[in-house]
Here is the input.
Amino acid sequence: MERNFETVMIEQCSPVLAGLKPANLFRHENRDRAAFYATVAGWDARLAPKGIRLLVLKECPHSHWYLVYLYRPAKLGAALAQPGVEAFLRREGYALPSDPVSPAGCAQLLRQLAGRLSCDGDFPHEIGVFLGYPLGDVEGFIANRGRNFTCCGCWKSYGDPDAARRHFAQLNKCTAVYLRLFHSGTPVLKLAVAA
Here is the structure.
């Protein structure tokens, strides 16, 4: 069932629009590929002045669904610059660009991630660092195969459960507020905080 693009974007990416998170993903179905890509390009152009970009990371032409990545390049660069992230990505097989935290470096890493998503192999769980998850949680998820977590919310946390619950509550509250505002008529561009 096809759903309104803007509604799905608000449901899944409010913390990114609010500037609380560097990136998020959402899945969207659309039988008209050309119209879908035009929608993505249109929103990308409208959100770019606010420091937000959209990118289709994966598409399935047979089932007509797309995996859309909404992100803030500056915040993504900061997330990738966190201690240990570059070494982690190198261990996961990524070819690191000379400046992985620059917009061009982030784009190169996102192309590699998209390539991994299109393969029929294992899901690339390192995607968590591209979504702004703490490196310890991403490594914990991979090492524990999704088990033995200390807290589960927007993702599985392997660190301090109280801190994770507070963070998850903040993200959930943001989403609830944005959904309420959106459904009461506030347009997406008004909800998108400029970087």
